[in-house]
Amino acid sequence: MxxxxxxxxxxxxxxxxxxNALTSTAAAAAAxxxxxxxxxxxxxxxxxxxxxDVIATIAKSEKIIQTQLxxxxxxxxxxxxxxxxGLGNQFLGAIxxxxxxxxxxxxxxxxxxSHVEGGVDPTRDADLINTELLLADLxxxxxxxxxxxxxxxxxxxxxxxxxxLIERIKPSMEDGMPARRIDAPGDxxxxxxxxxxxxxxxxxxxxxxxAASGNAHAHAVARFAEGEGAGAVVVSAAIEAELSQLSDDxxxxxxxxxxxxxxxxxxxIQAGYNLLxxxxxxxxxxxxxxxxxxxxxxxxxxxxxxxxxxxxxxFICAETIAYDDYISCNGEAGAREAGKLRxxxxxxxxxxxxxxxxxxxx
Length: 362
Fold this sequence. Notes:
Layout: E1 4-8, H1 15-28, E2 37-39, E3 42-46, H2 50-59, E4 63-65, E5 68-73, H3 88-95, E6 100-106, H4 122-153, H5 157-174, H6 188-192, E7 200-205, H7 216-228, E8 231-235, H8 237-243, H9 248-257, H10 264-275, E9 278-284, E10 288-295, H11 300-307, H12 309-313, E11 315-321, H13 323-328, H14 332-337, E12 342-344, E13 355-360
Parallel strand pairs: 1-5, 1-6, 4-10, 6-7, 7-8
Antiparallel strand pairs: 2-3, 3-5, 9-10, 11-12, 11-13
Helix pairs in contact: 1-8, 4-5
C-alpha cells in the first residue's frame, strides 16, 4: 500500500466521526476488495473510480477490486502540543509518519458541542495547529543542527549541505511559512522530515443544511486554503455517519433528499488521493477488474512491480490501451483490431486510466 493520510484536528471538530464513517463505508464494501483494519485507529478505504465499473462490464469481470488509501485517525491536538501539552508528543510522533494531512475544521454551530477554544472559528483553529506544527519543526531543526555542525566541521559534505539548507529555510519558517511553501533544491526538504512539508487538505465539517453548498465558515476556509497553497473540501460528518449505515438504495434516496449527487466522503478520498500526486492504472479480465495505485511519473516496469515483483524483474512489455480507446473499441479485442493496443517498453510513463496487460518472463 504505502500511501496514507493522517486525519488531524482539535477536539470536538468531528474528525473521529469522519474516520468512523470512512471505515464503516469501507467495511460495507468488503465484498469488493480486501478491506482490513490495521489498528483501531487505522483503516483502508476504497478510492471511488467510475471507470472501474465501466471496464468491468465490458470485460465481464466476476469481481471489482478498487485501489485503496490508508487513513489514520491521529490523537487530538491542543494549544501547546509542540511542548508536549495534552497528547502532543503522541500526536507529533504519529503525524510524522503520514504522507499527507487531512485537517478537519469545525464549520458548524452547536451549543451542545463545546469548543476547546471557546467558539467556532475554523481559520483560527487552522492557524493554531499550523503554528504548533511549525514550532515542532523548528525544534526538530534545532536538534538536527547540533549534530550536523560537528559533522560539517569534520569535513562531511552532506552534513554541510543539510546545515546550509536549514539556515536558508529557518528564517521563513520562523516568520510563519510552512516548509511546503518554501522552494528548495532537489529532495532537500524531504531529507529533513518536516511535518509542515507534507501536503495538506482542509476538510470543512459543516451542518447538514450546508452540506451541498457550504457556509460562511467553509467559504472562509476555502480562501484561507488558497492563500496557503492547500486544498479544501466541504463535508458533513453527521450525514456521512448516517450514509455509512444505509443500504445502496436508501443511500441514493437520502442523498437526493439532501440535494447531493454523491457522498462527501467520495470527494474527501479523491482529494486525498490527488493530494498525494497518485494515479491509477487498470487491469481487466474475466476473473476481476482492478485499479492499482501508482505515483505520477512512474514507469511501466515500476507499475508492474505494484502487481508483483516478478512482473518488474521479468518485464517484457506492457500491452496498453488508453481508457477512452478501451471504451470506444468495446474492450481489448476491439482495441487490438483497431490498432489502439500499444506495446510499451519498461520506461514508458504510465498514464492515469491506462488499461494494461503486462507480459513478463522470470
